Amino acid sequence: MSYYAKCWFDYKTVVVSGASSGIGKGLVKRLINDHCCNVIGIARNEKKMKALVEELGDKGDRFFTYSLFDVSVEENWKKFAAELEEKGIIPDIIINNAGILPKFDKFLNYTMDDINKAMQINFYSCVYSMRAMVPIILNSPSAALVNVASSAALCSLAGTSIYSASKAALKSMTDAVREEYRGRLYVGLVCPGFTKTDIFHNQKEVKNSTSEKALQMVSTDCEKMVDMIIEGMWKKKSDMVFGSDAKMMDIGTKLMGVGIPMVANVVMKISKLELFEDIYSDDSDSVKAAIRAARRNVR
User: Fold this and answer.
1) In which domain, by residue range, is 52 found?
2) Are 241 and 191 in contact (CB under 8 A)?
3) What is the CATH number of the domain that holds 26?
C-alpha cells in the first residue's frame, strides 16, 4: 500500500511468534510482501510452516526463516537468543503473538492444568521472550516490541476468567515496560477483538451451529485485522484496540466500569448459544465439590 512507503520498519529483521496461522501468519506475509522485512517465524507446527514458505514463493527462501519450539518454555527462548547472537543476527522487532483461548467455562470448572497452560502460553511466553530478546534488540536503532493481547484484557466476560487474567497480566506488564524503556524502545500493545482465525478450536463444537453464525457476525476478517495492526505499528501507536466489538468493550468499560461485563453477561445468557452452555449450566454439584476440597485442605 502506498501509505507504507518509506515505513520505519522496511527491510528490518522481525521475530514473530505464533507465525504458522491466523494473525501471526498474516503479519509474516504482510511484513515480507509489503515491507521486504527479513522475518524469523516461531511456531511448533512444521507442516504449517513449510506451507507458509510455499505460499511466500520465491520470497520464502530470501526473506523467511523459522524456528520450531514451544514458546511457553523459558529455556527455548534462551537457546534461540544464543543462536541469534552466535550467528550475529540482531533483530529489530519482536512481535509476541502466540496465544490460546481456553474453552468458555466457569472458573471452578477449569483444572490447574488448564490455568497453567493459559498463563504459560499467553503471559509467561512473553515474559521469557522479552527477557531473552529485549537485551538483543536494544542494540538496534529501530528497536521495537509489540505484544498481542486481547480485548479480554480490557473487559472480562463470564466464562473467560483465565483467558482474561492472562491477557490482562500481559497488558499491565507491557504498559510498565513501555515507560521503563521510553525513548529507547517502541512498545506497542494490540488488543484485537474476535477475529476470523482458528483460535476457537479449543471450544465446544460450533461448526455449522448458531454459535458459529454469531461469531462470524461480530468477528473481524483476519486480513483486515492484520492491516490495522501493520498501520498501527507504522504510526508507532502505543495502544491498538481493533475490531468493533473490542472498541465497544473498551469505551463501555471506561464509561460504565463493571456495568459492561454485567450487560454482556445478560446478553450471553439470553442468547442460548451452545458456546456458552457450560457457563450457565447448573453448577451446584461442582461448587459443593470445590467447597469440600477446600475444607479438606484447610484441615
Assistant:
1) 2-298
2) yes
3) 3.40.50.720
